[in-house]
Amino acid sequence: MTESSFTRPFASASTTSSERGNALSSEPELHVVGWRKQRTLAKPIELTGRGLLYGRRVRLRLLPAEADTGRVFVRTDRSIPAVIPAIADAVTATDRRTVLGTPPVHVELVEHVLAALAGMMVDNCRIELDGPEPPGWDGSVRPLVHALKEVGFSAQRADLPIVTVRTTLEVCLNSSRIVFLPSTASTCLEIDYFLDYGTWSVIAPQRFSCRATPQDFLNALAASRTFLLLEEVQALRHQGLGIHTGPEHVLVFTQRGVLGNRLRWADEAVRHKILDLIGDLALIGWPLAGRLVAYRSGHRLNVHLAQQIRRAGRTTRLGHLLSASAA
């Protein structure tokens, strides 16, 4: 939930590493660098809390799922429970948060729950909600990650491909960009994020790097909270959003510092940006290997990258290797 508004449409993003801002080029070529067993939860989890956008009390249930199910949201408050797959193809909006499905059958601000599941390597999960958004808790996913650790995980028989690009892939949108560098041997994804709101912003430029492993996610990212500038809070409230959300739920940056709260890390903002990126890339449906370098990226560009990679997986010889949830 940390996206600045963009006006240029998705089709203006470049997918080449040499030319920025050109029309879309050919799809990136992918290949498999390794395999791992799929994982699901060992037991169900149930948590409650108020949503950050609408302030309603929401019940979140995470249930184990069969291999190749993927991650799916289920709106249990509908007369007929609505199933919404957590894939990039189902994204319908990226303004300050990632939205799946079409109202009234939709789920908003999905990136945090998806980041927790992907960060802790939960590949197959049924995510039940009795409202349009997950609980927001304190703006982080620390309560959810602790619950995931407590119930544990179950390895499944099916394998999951770990994918990289054959050549460097770059996506750009205005002054934001993500560069995806291929893996040569490692099956791990490294993320390097540069946050820069400009010279006069109340949020200083920050940089943070980590590996997309459960240990790094737990120790360095899970407790980072969603954040907004004070003027962004005011704009959201004019839209009727976040009216019941206070400084105890999100970090609000002002000219005098963080409003009514304290930072957990001096660079907490950039850590949360990486958390958002992991959540958005979970919409690809299978793990990545290589190195991602992101500069000022937000949900729109994150999702565009996820869509490019998913499309490449479907249109290349890799397609038959992908699980049913990602094919």
CATH superfamily: lpxc deacetylase, domain 1
Poorly predicted residue ranges: 2-25, 323-327
Main-sheet strand order equals: 2-3-9-4-5
CATH C-level class:
Alpha Beta
How does this structure look, described?
It is a single chain. Helix 1 (111-119) packs across helix 5 (268-281) and helix 5 packs parallel to helix 6 (299-315). The protein is α+β, with helices and mostly antiparallel strands and 327 residues long. It is built from 6 helices and 18 strands. Mean pLDDT is 89; it is low at 2-25 and 323-327. Helices cover 20% and strands 31% of the residues. The radius of gyration is 19 Å and the shape is globular. Strands 2-3-9-4-5 form a 5-stranded mixed sheet, with helices on one face. 46% of the residues are buried. It has one domain (10-321): 2-Layer Sandwich (Ribosomal Protein S5, domain 2).
What's the short story on this structure?
This protein has 327 residues and is α+β, with helices and mostly antiparallel strands.
Q: Any key phrases for this structure?
A:
five-stranded mixed β-sheet, disordered N terminus, about 325 residues, single chain, Ribosomal Protein S5, domain 2, alpha+beta, globular, 18 strands
Furnish the topology, listing elements before pairings.
Blueprint: E1 30-41, E2 45-50, E3 57-64, E4 71-75, E5 82-85, E6 91-93, E7 99-102, E8 105-107, H1 111-119, E9 125-129, H2 142-151, E10 153-165, E11 169-173, E12 176-181, E13 189-195, E14 206-211, H3 214-221, E15 227-229, H4 230-238, E16 251-254, E17 257-258, H5 268-281, E18 290-295, H6 299-315
Parallel strand pairs: 4-9, 13-18, 15-16
Antiparallel strand pairs: 1-10, 2-3, 3-9, 4-5, 6-7, 7-8, 11-12, 12-18, 13-14, 16-17
